[in-house]
Amino acid sequence: MLPPRHVLGLSAYYHDAAAALLRDGQIIAAAQEERFTRIKNEPDFPAQAIAFCLRYGGLKPADLDCVVFYDKPVLKFTRLLESYLAVAPGGWRTFPEVVSNWLGGKLDLRKTIREELPGLRADCPILFTAHHEAHAASAFYPSPFTEAAILTIDAVGEWATTTIGRGRGDKIELLQELRFPHSLGMLYSAFTDYCGFRINSGEYKLMGLAPYGEPIYAEAILRELLDLKADGSFWMNLDCFNFLRGTTMTNARFHKLFGGPPRRPEETLEQRHMDLARSIQVVTEEVVLRLARHARTLTGEKHLCLAGGVALNCVANGRLLRERVFDKIWIQPAASDAGGALGAALAGWHSQRNQAEPVSAKVDTMCGALLGPEYSDEEIEATLRSHEAKFQKLSQSELLDTTVKLLEAGKVIGWVQGRMEFGPRALGNRSILGDARSPRMQSIMNLKVKFRESFRPFAPIVRRERVGDYFELTEDSPYMLLVAPVRPELRLSPPAGVKGLDLLKQPRSTLPAVTHVDYSARIQTVARHDNPLLYELLLRFEAATGCGVLVNTSFNVRGEPIVCSPEDAYRCFVHTEMDYLAIGNFLLDRTEQAARPVERRVAPQAD
Q1: What is the mean pLDDT of residues 486-499?
Q2: Given Cys at both, which of 38, 60, 279, 497 links 217, Cβ 3.0 to 4.6 Å?
């Protein structure tokens, strides 16, 4: 019996719903539902993402040979019921709504999937992987390793919150796990919420805030909240948390321990919040390091694959790399629940094969994470004309040279090219670009374009062969998931006594727009074979300026998903203070467009 040719993987109903399509085991397409609905972290059934994947693959539902969901719903529902019973009568406020949602369609997902995919053949199997099995598959199968340890860390799947496994050839084995409610993801999210940021998206903000503080609460976290063992396993002190019993993450005991009630989202950030961010970041890194060391001892492997939401903590990843617990690490770029859709498809495809493939050399098969929709110049032009936009159409070489001149002049460029990225990072196809040498670029982008908190850093992009000239990094970092220091000779020292958000006003290096206050940077390396157009832009910018680094941030504003279509890109462009939009072979000057008000959907955090 041959393995299924076309496999569709799905994730939904918690956050970051997504779909992914395999053909003969190869990744063809993948996208998050939020990019189509324009609802950030969209949890609902990924109907539009599925439609894209099928359209890109030239398929109809009847052509699918297997559909795989990234969770085991009955097991997850059992965990929910057991958790409510364990704290009864606590949790009574949320119990009716949660049970109603599950009885409304989550439990009978086979029926839901068939209803959402009319035309699916009756003999097409609908399978379910365990949540962390999907994460593990998303980490190992696309990686360049034939053998590796696998570490998955998130909030919770069915019961597991952390797993250690091993991948060899065609097989994955999960060896050990931590179970709910003891969860590193939940712990980090509790501090995210306490510091006034949104769970499932604000964790990046907490990580970016951490370098402004000192880890003065780390000891209290380890003493009062966490019983951490040498192997990275731990017990959480549930007396300080409220997520089992109520609608909040933390309780009065937690608040007393850390000096007051939770910060409201738009309240001023205090030094206490910065110190809390630094403290939980330090503790998180320690837990990840201990888990990784234990995984190395347990598996004997020299390579490590990472997935799960905590694997998006690029600061922890960078430290793990520098500590050399493993020779090499590879991180799934869509490490959170979106990547679960891909992992489910991969796990399903490999599980239905009759025999394992012989172990041979592998390469990264994520296609640079450029797995989403792309649009032709004809489609782009039709959109622009529908808005009566003013534009010029250039050859590709002319577009590159003009963009270089604009960047050199300090302009902010929206850059929309090729296929959209899968995962939370814009990797050069749905990006906003700027000159990394500009001391004003971070402030301009944060406050006039992104409309987000001024403390948040931006990422550098650099050609792979030049990364070591600017940063203390010798590894590939194609998915912007590793943080490394700027080279010492490029650093600048702030005046003595400057601390907290006042550090924002002090350039930290000769690349001030991409250097965080602790001299770190979240680096994306660009290889010609992964993204030839972006590579060529970097090459020409360096030829013109002598600098091989640009700022790269996602093309969106605060509270919105990254843009997908030409319609999304144009709307975002004209409602911000971005200077130019380079979309396909078209270049638009914002000053030439019809006057539109700048839309500040959420007020930025004051300096």
Answers
A1: 86
A2: 279
H or E stretch at 109: helix 109-116
Q: Which of 302, 289, 312 is nearest to 135 (CA)?
A: 312
Amino acid identity, residue 498? V
Distance CA 302, CA 434 (A): 38
CA gap 334, 350 in Å, rounded = 20
Classify burial at 225, counting beta carbons within 10 Å of its beta carbon; exposed 0-12, middle 13-18, buried 19 or more: buried
Inter-CA distances, 247 with 41, 93, 243, Å = 19, 8, 6
Residues 6+ apart with CB under 8 A from 201: 40, 41
More confident residue, 493 or 189: 189
Segment 236-266, tens digit of pLDDT: 999 999 988 778 899 999 999 999 999 998 8
Three-class DSSP category at 510: coil
Q: Provide the terminal-to-terminal Cα distance of the chain, rounded to the nearest Å.
A: 63
User: What secondary structure letter does DSSP report for 104?
Assistant: I
Q: Mean pLDDT throughout 290-301?
A: 98
DSSP state of 62: G
Contact yes or no for 414/384 (Cβ under 8 A)? no
**Residue 596 CB coordination number (10 Å):** 12
SS (H, E, C) 310-364: HHHCHHHHHHHHHHCCCCEEEECCCCCHHHHHHHHHHHHHHHCCCCCCCCCCCCC
pTM of the model: 0.93
R_g (Cα) of the chain, nearest Å: 24
- pLDDT tens, 324-363? 999 999 999 999 999 999 999 999 999 887 665 555 678 9
Looking at residues 518-524, what average pLDDT do you find? 96
Which residues form the catalytic set?
Answer: 15
d(CA 412, CA 434): 5
Which residue bears the tokens 């990580």? Answer: 207
Residue 79 has pLDDT above 70, yes or no: yes
Tell me: pLDDT of 602 over 50.
no
Asked if 449 and 578 touch (Cβ cutoff 8 Å), the reply is yes
> Distance of CA 97 to CAs 39, 42, 75, 190, 583, Å?
22, 19, 19, 22, 44
Lookup: tokens for 29: 């397409």
Relative to beta strand 430-435, strand 549-554 is: antiparallel
How many Å separate Cα 303 from the centre of its chain?
Answer: 22
- What is the layout of strands, in order, in the sheet containing 66-69? 26-32, 18-23, 6-11, 66-69, 126-128
- The percent of residues above 90 in pLDDT, for the chain, comes to 80
Instruction: Give the count of alpha carbons within 13 A of 48, CB side only.
Output: 14
Whole-Å CA distances, 494 to 230, 329, 509? 38, 34, 10
